[in-house]
Amino acid sequence: MYNPRKAYGETLIELGKKHPNLVVLDADLSKSTNTIMFARKYPERFFEMGIAEANMITTAAGLASCGKIPFVSTFAVFATGRVYDQIRMDLAYSQMNVKIFATHGGISVGKDGASHQMLEDLALMRVLPNMTVLAPSDATETRKIVELMAETKGPMYARVGRADAPLIYKKEDMNDIKIGKGLTVTDGDDATIIACGTMVDQALEAQKTLSKQGMETRVIDMHTIKPLDKKLVLKAAKETEVIITIEEHSIIGGLGGAVAETLIEEGCKVKFMRMGIKDIFCESGEPKDLLEKYELNEKYIVKNIQKMIKKK
Amino acid sequence: MKSYDDKTINELNITAVKIRKHIIEMLYRAKSGHPGGSLSAVDALVALYFFHMKHNPKKPCDPNRDRFILSKGHAAPALYAVLAESGYFPVSELKKLREINCRLQGHPVCTHIPGVEASTGSLGHGLSFANGVALAGKLDKKDYHVYVMLGDGETGEGQVWEAAAVAAHYKLDNLTAMIDRNFLQIDGNTEDVLRLESVRDRWSAFGWNVVEIDGHNIKQILDVLNETDEHKNQPSMIILNTVKGKGVSFMENNVDFHGVAPNEMEYNLAIKELDLMQKKLGAHT
């Protein structure tokens, strides 16, 4: 287990050394997002913006206009919905080189409840022209994604969850990772699970269970929701004929929406299902209990795949 | 500190009338846009671009340039006219304002108009952007200065006050903001729509150095810019007392010209008045 937020904080320190132009902004959550690690190491390049997120986003745009590479962090709910107009005007429309790295995405935030469980951020960001949208799955991938964000021009949004997450990858697994290219983690021809963020681990657990039952599942880690790796989606559709998407996000407009658009437009003949939060606000509770109640775990993936393979 | 003589002031006043003529011409051709708030902003823009600011239209991305950010993006015609007359792009392009396949969008956009620092139009953003530029200037130990103009009605936006707090907290004395205090917004007098007074006390309470001047007196504007540039440890706010629609008699203090372009008759009348003004100032028209 390793917390992706911690991986983010550690990577910022490394990148701070490599890129003297990298600056970090936070809105009174630096201890939670872990930007405090950068703040301690490079205090002159860290800007505490207080509880004033709209100003933070636009200030980052101003910094970027002077050649800085601003990383902006807060919880996913405040990093997107609260500041949508600022992101739209000052980052996306203005094509500013600002990187929003949001933490505490999804329902696994747990006990803080629906006010803090951001389930619409990927959809909100995906619909903006010029935005790149990312959701890394573990600490190792987070490190690499943060590096790529610093080194690739343009406005970007990335989100991770709050909780510690199982380590899926070793460092060397990340050698060929690219923004916009999904990772095929396991191969199989019976069905495909396209997952992002916290749900990649659950997809891999489901894959193991299904394999024991004689069903070989392909698991794709779609760390980039936009631009979507359409080629990889279409290949999976053709070769496995069953596709499930899973994300800790509304079933509307996020990874599932993006994959559905691709499949329909390309005329794919597939059995398709989106797993995610079904257009409702959730509630307080232990993350594990919430994921069970809202049917977002290994058990439900297995159930759904079994059903769909039967209908094939 | 830049000094000037009476001749310079007269020339700047003549330029201001020229800019006002461009604005009327552009809006008449575009058949849409915002005359009132464009005309009230002109004199400060002229003082900045044609005298006070350190900038070079041939090097719009020079890292050492002073920056101006138009937070009240609907005054785009004033900014475009000033940029074109400064040499950022051909004056002939002004007549294409708001046309399809033209760079000059209804509101400023930084990605394809040289000299435009920030994309604005959604109110309340400009001061935050200016904060970012000022913070970068401090970090890089550059001596450029950042200027930003807000509308008075615009300060109803909460983001303005977030930015006001941050600028004071970080002691951004390389930042000078201006409020185009013309007392009118779309729905009427600012004090009826959403009370703003005391504007001076509000900004002072946030920790700003506040000065108040006649926003149409170029001499006063230049003097105060020299002062605020030198002010230390605080950002400065210049309250520009202005007249909405300034320079065209029937548009002055007339809220109906906030967002309505002149028709042919109004256009002819306005140009006639501005021509007269130019002659009075001794300009060769």
Tell me, briefly, the overall form of chain B: globular
SSE string of chain B, helix = H, strand = E? HHEHHEHEEEHHEHEH
- CATH-defined topology of the largest domain in chain A: Rossmann fold
Overall average pLDDT of chain B: 97
For the largest beta-sheet of chain B, the strand count, sense and barrel status come to: 5 strands, parallel
Helices and strands of chain B: which structural class?
alpha/beta
Distance between the termini of chain B: 32 Å
CATH superfamily of the largest domain in chain A: Thiamin diphosphate (ThDP)-binding fold, Pyr/PP domains
Q: Tally the beta strands of chain A.
A: 12
CATH architecture of the largest domain in chain A: 3-Layer(aba) Sandwich
**What is the number of helices of chain B?**
9
What is the quaternary state of this protein? heterodimer
Give the neighbour order of strands across the main sheet of chain B. Answer: 1-2-3-7-6
Biggest interface, and residues per chain? A-B, 31 and 32 residues
- Shape summary of chain A: globular
Low-confidence stretches of chain B: none
CATH class membership of the largest domain in chain A: Alpha Beta
Distance separating the two termini of chain A: 37 Å
How would you characterize the overall build of this protein?
The complex is a heterodimer of chains A (312) and B (285). Chain A is α/β, with parallel strands linked by helices and 312 residues long. Chain A folds into two domains: 4-159, Rossmann fold; 180-311, Rossmann fold, CATH 3.40.50. In chain A, 41% of the residues lie in helices and 19% in strands. Chain A has 13 helices and twelve strands. Chain A has helices spanning 4-18, 30-33, 36-41, 53-64, 76-79, 84-93, 121-126, 139-151, 199-212, 230-240, 255-265, 287-293, 298-311, and strands at residues 22-26, 46-48, 69-75, 99-103, 132-134, 156-159, 183-186, 191-195, 217-221, 224-226, 242-250, 271-277. The radius of gyration of chain A is 19 Å and the shape is globular. With 285 residues, chain B is of the alpha/beta class. Chain B has one domain (6-280): Rossmann fold (3-Layer(aba) Sandwich). Chain B is globular, with a radius of gyration of 18 Å. The interface between A and B is medium-sized, with 31 and 32 residues.
